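ok trying this again, last paste got cut off
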Amino acid sequence: VELRGMINEKLGFYTYVTDNQGVFPKYVRDFAQLYSFPGEGLAKITGKNGIGVDFLSARGYITFKPIKNINIKLGNDHNVFGSGYRSLILSDNSSPYLFLRIDTQLGRFKYTNLWTSMINGDRNAWNEALRGKKYAAIHHLSVNLTDRINVGVFEAEIFSRDSTGGGYDLNYINPIIFYRYIESYIGSQDNALLGFNLRWLVGNKGVLYSQFVLDEFLTKYLFNGSKSWTNKYSFQLGGKYVDAFQVQNLDLQAEYNYIRPYTYSHKDGGRNYAHYGQSLAHPLGANLNEYVGIIRYKPTSRLSVYGTLTYSSQGKDPFSTWLNYGSDINKSYDTRNGDLNQKTGQGINVNTLFSDVRLSYSMAHNLFLDGRFLYRNASSLDANFNQKTTLFSVGLRYNMAYRQQTF
């Protein structure tokens, strides 16, 4: 069920509820943590063999525009910053969360304030009581330097006060202050992140975009080649080409993502960059290189072709030990594997090739006949990580978005 509307051009509302049951490929079941599902919250295991999943998905919010330049949104949903297929700043990978968002547009400037309430993903702390809360205070300022170049600055503070009592720290309510100053002022060890993004329109049919997120660093280690674990950052570079090679309705996209070990992690689940145990940025977490290629083509008014190809190289932790090589952002960085010589891809190297090709034929307005071929091959010298998936499917879809499970 999906409903949306507007009252007097001032107050808007949106709600979306689905009940879902299914059996998903093994790589999806392996990716899902206990009692959860990628992109969703609570999920129950069903079926005699324990391979079925049953979960409820719900999102909803209200919007209010008190004046022309300000829009206020309150509810449960995702928020995304960036132009890429992935977002290293804030993505829609996790389950929805409670938020208050204020967007202010002043000429070339757009300023976004985002305050959220999330769930601590530390399942060892879960019991019959309410699950632990964590919070985020985020702001993002973007400016159109020219008609073709947009740059943005991002800052986030992730914190929890469960151990000391109290809820949302009111020190982070200030919408225009530098959060890192507040963190130092109140003597906390909250998780602060800084980010930058760029979008550049090239010619009439091209777009270049980039993101950089700085989670933590020590100046004496950043440039001396020591590869300190404190060099926690991520980088993205990508581009889009519309009507490529003068072929109408042929769009191409390429993207590269790089994330250092231990980026987005912290000492506990109340301060890492995750909600309900799922990353707020890249679905794979950290300690990786990834290449993404996407093709979209509409040869006729009814037929659409969508293809995704990704290749990732990530360092994983061994199954049989508690070693932490920096890929799992839910692990405390206090359990890290040393301080220096921390290289991206360290640990058990896993190379994953993922391809997903979909054909959609529009039988009527918003009624689609879908055909899909998915191939995924994860390979490693450690046989525990080797996994191959081949999937063919046909579906009838009416007025529904397509579920992405690209990881």
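PB: full thing came through this time. The two ends are 28 Å apart (CA to CA).
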